[in-house]
Amino acid sequence: MSEERSLNFIEEIIENDLNGGKYETLVTRFPPEPNGYLHIGHAKAICLNFGLTKKYGGYTNLRFDDTNPVTEKTEYVDSQQEDIRWLGFEWKNELYTSDYFDTLYDFAVKLIEKGLAYVDNGTADEIAALKGTPTEPGTDSPYRNRSTAENLDLFSRMKAGEFEDGTCILRAKIDMASPNMLMRDPIIYRIKHAEHHRTGNKWCIYPMYDFAHGQSDSIEEITHSICTLEYVSHRELYDWFIAELGIFPSRQYEFARLNLTYTVMSKRKLLQLVNEGLVDGWNDPRMPTISGLRRRGYTPESIREFCERIGIAKRENLIELSLLEFCVREHLNKTANRVMAVLDPIKLVITNYPEGKTETLIGENNPEAEDKGGTREIPFSNELWIEREDFMEEPAKKWFRLAPGAMVRLKNAYIVKCEDFIKDAEGNVTEIRCTYIPESKSGEDTSEIHVKGTIHWVSTAHAKTAEIRVYDRLFSVESPDSEEGDFKDYLNPESMKVIKEAYIEPYLADADLDSRYQFIRKGYYCLDKDSTADHLVFNQTVGLKDAWAKVKK
């Protein structure tokens, strides 16, 4: 697919720059803040930055933008690295904005010396009041015309820890009347007496993201600094810093971030869901985090394919979650072994099959796989579990499954005919009694009986039990961010259903965390990390068909 598509606008720019000799080598970076887990939106940026250097040569740096010690943790650094590697990418250099704290401090001193930065003692409210509005210019701070000597003295005392948090800041001196609000003397340093996850207590002043980001790109000589559309207005400021400091002119390009239906992408909102216990941590299978998708059974191939399909655009749009599900369904169809699991069991007894006898049948693992995935042994006996929904006491029209007098094929086994059924005192069917056709064995059928329906089953004597977790959309509305009120009001109460005791074929007792399975006629599943040898837990990745297409109609 990637061979056929036309170049996106960033690829066109890169080809022109490389062919025209502007740069010899392409250098990109992926710059996450280590203040949360990466999500599917980051996957798009990862695939873009790493994918470009895979295509055009050069290299990609992984740089953690760790300028806020209050929100950052080593746990987040580790999880983000794991996610990038899992997606199939490797960075050249592992870097941190904190590596450049000394250089950034020197940059700030240089701006003060040029008369382009000053220490402001105003409160946050006072500074905000002087900022103006998009249609009205701002007003100069009373501290704007301090002397260079006074500013250098105050800034060095800020660094030495003489002042408390919030008592003063360093601002760039640009233009309080600029139509771009970000150019109205933006804050470039603030005091935070907080321990940093890498530099400890060496620093009590930290650069603002807008001051650190562009300069870090410049220090690393990033040729194409790719970020999302909300940073369009920041580009003028980044360019101003680079020009005034006379450093490598890294150039920023913006693309539309990924917005997905039935999902929120704000790290702040995802953190709220985690902290308030509304989900089972960052890697809850309902979360749009990469670790959540991995736990749910998504594959790196399916996520890369999804990012390729949605492409790179300059305009914001809302992508259907069903496209992501389509991509994983397509990949798992070719790679997941077919197995049998009964989620809502009812007993089926074959009255003319010898009691106590066990027969070993052969099942094909994956007819869609290039190598067919091999085969496995499946035990068969006279008592089986089947799905309750596969029997109907009074069959509907065009019903091809079990009903009184009806015949059906048991997958990989025999044709059976329903002779009778048993009900309990409440009128619920508890057992179905059938006879089997000995000559109808799958692969050796000489019965010449043709049936239209095939159902799955598990031998009761050999079945293993498992807990099955079936997931749905985390939110009940397409765009929770666009709705009135608190986004948490729109959480889907049906987003997770737990089947405490399902029956699975014994083959699944040896399931591992890296494998994916198609439960025949049910969907795609994977083993969950909560599993133990005595208590297997499987997560539904996605159903066999797009159930939501029907719901929306």
From TrEMBL:
<dbReference type="GO" id="GO:0004819">
    <property type="term" value="F:glutamine-tRNA ligase activity"/>
</dbReference>
<dbReference type="InterPro" id="IPR022861">
    <property type="entry name" value="Gln_tRNA_ligase_bac"/>
</dbReference>
<feature type="binding site">
    <location>
        <begin position="33"/>
        <end position="35"/>
    </location>
    <ligand>
        <name>ATP</name>
    </ligand>
</feature>
<keyword id="KW-0648">Protein biosynthesis</keyword>
<dbReference type="InterPro" id="IPR000924">
    <property type="entry name" value="Glu/Gln-tRNA-synth"/>
</dbReference>
<dbReference type="GO" id="GO:0005829">
    <property type="term" value="C:cytosol"/>
</dbReference>
<dbReference type="InterPro" id="IPR011035">
    <property type="entry name" value="Ribosomal_bL25/Gln-tRNA_synth"/>
</dbReference>
<dbReference type="InterPro" id="IPR014729">
    <property type="entry name" value="Rossmann-like_a/b/a_fold"/>
</dbReference>
<dbReference type="InterPro" id="IPR001412">
    <property type="entry name" value="aa-tRNA-synth_I_CS"/>
</dbReference>
<feature type="short sequence motif" description="'KMSKS' region">
    <location>
        <begin position="264"/>
        <end position="268"/>
    </location>
</feature>
<dbReference type="InterPro" id="IPR004514">
    <property type="entry name" value="Gln-tRNA-synth"/>
</dbReference>
<dbReference type="Pfam" id="PF20974">
    <property type="entry name" value="tRNA-synt_1c_C2"/>
</dbReference>
<protein>
    <recommendedName>
        <fullName>Glutamine--tRNA ligase</fullName>
        <ecNumber>6.1.1.18</ecNumber>
    </recommendedName>
</protein>
<feature type="short sequence motif" description="'HIGH' region">
    <location>
        <begin position="32"/>
        <end position="42"/>
    </location>
</feature>
<feature type="binding site">
    <location>
        <position position="209"/>
    </location>
    <ligand>
        <name>L-glutamine</name>
    </ligand>
</feature>
<feature type="binding site">
    <location>
        <position position="228"/>
    </location>
    <ligand>
        <name>ATP</name>
    </ligand>
</feature>
<dbReference type="InterPro" id="IPR020059">
    <property type="entry name" value="Glu/Gln-tRNA-synth_Ib_codon-bd"/>
</dbReference>
<keyword id="KW-0067">ATP-binding</keyword>
<keyword id="KW-0547">Nucleotide-binding</keyword>
<feature type="domain" description="Glutamyl/glutaminyl-tRNA synthetase class Ib anti-codon binding">
    <location>
        <begin position="336"/>
        <end position="436"/>
    </location>
</feature>
<dbReference type="InterPro" id="IPR020058">
    <property type="entry name" value="Glu/Gln-tRNA-synth_Ib_cat-dom"/>
</dbReference>
<dbReference type="Pfam" id="PF03950">
    <property type="entry name" value="tRNA-synt_1c_C"/>
</dbReference>
<keyword id="KW-0963">Cytoplasm</keyword>
<dbReference type="GO" id="GO:0006425">
    <property type="term" value="P:glutaminyl-tRNA aminoacylation"/>
</dbReference>
<keyword id="KW-0436">Ligase</keyword>
<dbReference type="InterPro" id="IPR049437">
    <property type="entry name" value="tRNA-synt_1c_C2"/>
</dbReference>
<comment type="subunit">
    <text>Monomer.</text>
</comment>
<dbReference type="InterPro" id="IPR020056">
    <property type="entry name" value="Rbsml_bL25/Gln-tRNA_synth_N"/>
</dbReference>
<feature type="binding site">
    <location>
        <begin position="257"/>
        <end position="258"/>
    </location>
    <ligand>
        <name>ATP</name>
    </ligand>
</feature>
<feature type="binding site">
    <location>
        <begin position="39"/>
        <end position="45"/>
    </location>
    <ligand>
        <name>ATP</name>
    </ligand>
</feature>
<feature type="domain" description="tRNA synthetases class I (E and Q) anti-codon binding">
    <location>
        <begin position="454"/>
        <end position="528"/>
    </location>
</feature>
<feature type="domain" description="Glutamyl/glutaminyl-tRNA synthetase class Ib catalytic">
    <location>
        <begin position="26"/>
        <end position="333"/>
    </location>
</feature>
<dbReference type="InterPro" id="IPR050132">
    <property type="entry name" value="Gln/Glu-tRNA_Ligase"/>
</dbReference>
<feature type="binding site">
    <location>
        <begin position="265"/>
        <end position="267"/>
    </location>
    <ligand>
        <name>ATP</name>
    </ligand>
</feature>
<dbReference type="Pfam" id="PF00749">
    <property type="entry name" value="tRNA-synt_1c"/>
</dbReference>
<comment type="similarity">
    <text>Belongs to the class-I aminoacyl-tRNA synthetase family.</text>
</comment>
<keyword id="KW-0030">Aminoacyl-tRNA synthetase</keyword>
<feature type="binding site">
    <location>
        <position position="65"/>
    </location>
    <ligand>
        <name>L-glutamine</name>
    </ligand>
</feature>
<dbReference type="GO" id="GO:0006424">
    <property type="term" value="P:glutamyl-tRNA aminoacylation"/>
</dbReference>
<dbReference type="GO" id="GO:0005524">
    <property type="term" value="F:ATP binding"/>
</dbReference>
